[in-house]
Queue: 4 jobs
Job 1
Amino acid sequence: MNFAGKVVLITGASSGIGAATAIKFAKYGACLALNGRNVENLKKVAAQCGEAGSSPALVVGDVSKEADTARIWSETLDKYGKLDVLVNNAGIIETGSIENTSLEQYDRVMATNLRSIYQLTMLATPELVKSKGNIVNVSSVNGIRSFPGVLAYNISKMGVDQLTRCVALELAAKGVRANCVNPGVTVTNLHTRGGMDAETYKKFLEHSKTTHALGRPGTVDEVANAITFLASDLASFTTGLSLAVDGGRHAMCPR
Ligand code: NDP
């Protein structure tokens, strides 16, 4: 895989899947714009990209805020003057069912996980059309299967899959591809940041041995492999795909 001369913008690159994806793109020679809110963490990821010879631009901001996302985009374009790959990865999880998820929670999850992708994709599309570039969205197994107790998250991720497919069809004639990855449980900070305490998270990872056919949770590197593949020319005839990176979880049924 070779991304030499290609400009890649990754949201949520300061941690977890986004950070691993940034480092992988750096190894493949990409010019990077890395977004996140935590500047210290972003600098650490940028330093790791630096070891691979890349010097990423940091486009700091909160993607759930419209003005921030507009600025994240304008700073990226000011820096590089084009875009080849947009990776919409930033996301949060919040627990709650229809009985106890507040509208504030719903709005926060939807603004971060879905509305921000809509906005950034809208802004980036003219440049992606020029470059015949592509989009990789980070959805979840929750986008294609239904789980109780994380209602707003499920709805947001299902929206990401539908957005991906529709945009893929809308931009196909212009040579722009759009795909998403649907990870299963992946070891990152997502769940603890979403309120899970350390002991419960440990049990959750243990339980993942039975909820994933391959008998374990996934790693950030495994998801980053799928993202870089979809973004690369190796996937030149693939668009509108929801690619499960979940150890077979999407195919499982209780019995
Ligand atoms: P992490 O919590 O480790 O990383 C989340 C990233 O998103 C951080 O870089 C964080 O930046 C960024 N982020 C969150 N909210 C915002 C915001 N409002 N504005 C800008 N950046 C933001 O979790 P993951 O790496 O696991 O999550 C990445 C994606 O993967 C998410 O979309 C998640 O839903 C998805 N996913 C994760 C799974 C898992 O099991 N881990 C499974 C399926 C999907 P900062 O810290 O700087 O605020």
Job 2
Amino acid sequence: MKLLILNGPNLNLLGVREPEIYGNGTYADLCKLIEAHAAAIGAEIEIRQTNHEGVLVDWIQEARGKFDGIVLNPAAYTHTSVALLDAVLAAGVPTVEVHLSDPDRREPFRRVSYVRPACVACVKGRGPEGYLEAMNLLKLKIDS
Ligand code: DQA
């Protein structure tokens, strides 16, 4: 099982940005946690982060035929990007939307997720553990 873990804008600043919302763990800490879990569940993974919407679109498109599942935290693009919705639909790779915080309990503009209708599940408000939950959900789906 090959999983692509994609992170959108400003997630590289975890540990620095709004720790009261996102916690004190750094992006490197998040990657280590994901890598350890991947080893535990026998998944091959690639973890990527970009601040650019089009780069996320390219990566989602490239996942077709190469990865069995995508864990996607589109960050702020969640709430703005039809292009990401279209990319997930076009790629046809099972995708789980993940958020460290729970955007539905924050400002009203965060309550819209453009990508959600294209995703097989959404895990939100569970901090870094949410990525692991998303990986488990994909494993269940791919193994079934
Ligand atoms: C986020 C939530 C988004 O609303 C926000 O723009 C982010 C991070 C999260 O992981 O909680 O950058 O996706």
Job 3
Amino acid sequence: MQIFGLDIGGSGIKGAPVDLDRGDLAQERFKVLTPHPATPDGVADGVKEVVEHYGWTGPVGLTFPGVVTGGSTIRTAANVDKSWIDTDARALFSARLGGLPVTVVNDADAAGVAEMHFGAGRDRRGTVILLTFGTGIGSALFVDGALVPNTELGHLELHGHDAEKKASSKAKEDEELTWEHWAHRVHKYLAHVEMLFSPELFIIGGGVSRKSHKFLHYIEGIKAEIVPAQLQNNAGIVGAAMHAAEKDG
Ligand code: BGC
């Protein structure tokens, strides 16, 4: 079965039809840049462009980079326009897509669900935490495979700062940090999360998961196992489609 998966991020809106049996993209993904400011209207236009690129007319699963409650209401907007707060995202996207059935889930939760099913978290019990390092830091917490949604661990306070402002990959780029310097910050962040949750496994996701050989060796002294995500930057798209399939039936 195929469902369209679409990942809305701080820099790009990317999507593709997803083969749910294989947990992989059925076609090459298509991406448009996230508009700035990333208002509901502008983002919805980008979503429409990506879906129309494929002439898709079936169900669409979307991710959103903020807290999503009740499967539709946006509660936070750290890296997109603040006018998202309290938006009924499902209604907005469905209307813009000519009435196609849509579902909306937090981006890190979607990536986590995909990794637990098809990637680095397969068959892993106990407490598993996936962290995505991108424009912000997203988190997905699993206990014996079950997701605790909307955990928002990227906003833990670390040395008086919002953690994602210091340890996201955007912070690395903005401050032109070396991999070693940035890894040092990620290490402090992981130590803090470990102190709170004692997970068995950390899965490192987001664009940096492809470059784990450049920084994971700098991170020492964390008791949990630390592995890169396996679906890499497609985990959000795959997880969005999985979420839609679950809601569909
Ligand atoms: C948001 C999270 C999101 C993460 C990654 C954070 O700023 O609050 O909801 O998962 O960025 O996009």
Job 4
Amino acid sequence: MRDIRKLPLDKITVSPSILAADFGALNADIKRVTDAGADLLHLDVMDGHFVPNLTMGPPLIKAIRQQSDLIFDTHLMITDPLTYVPIFIGAGADHITFHVEADCDPQAVIDEIKKQGATAGISLKPGTPAEEVFPYLDRIELVLVMTVEPGFGGQSFMQDMMPKVKAIRDEIKRRGLKVHIEVDGGIASDTVETAAKAGANMMVAGTSVFRNPAGALKAISELHSASRYLS
Ligand code: DX5
Ligand code: ZN
């Protein structure tokens, strides 16, 4: 069963973002990172409104669902997540993360995701404080802390997001919850240590995995080896 609740909280898991893949050879590229040890597959959905970029939609997810058994970690950077939740889950998304800044009632979106049988995550843009997610922590499986402004791959990791990661991890521990903290943007072998030390256990990585000259196996292994920095 493809379920993020079955993934460990005390080890680093890696979710390669296909935004950095070769779209002309997508299935082969997904197979390459799967064989290299990817734990999930990160799907960046952008609508040209919530963020100034357009990427992929349900038909593409449906097509790769036929070819891949990885957990589809779907990151909705869209204005109206509630309307699209059933469509993305119908296309094969196992997990849906939406933005708390989107034009929506977060509780209604969580309820819809659960009703459709998927797990739920909430993402925070760099300018959004940790506390915005606190009211929902006991109803979601994942918090996604953006470590770049959402919209594009290949940007530089924002070190100054680490206090936010730590504040969310402290609150999750204080309340005895089991919630993944995922970070997204600029994650690579030189930034994973600081993210893990702050309390992030799930790493989205696009450029550093798909476009690593040393290969995906080395890239993913280096990210996994940061498990020793988790506490
Ligand atoms: C940015 C996306 C990221 C992006 C990460 O809005 O949410 O998932 O693809 O790309 P890298 O790892 O290249 O920073
Ligand atoms: Zn993403």
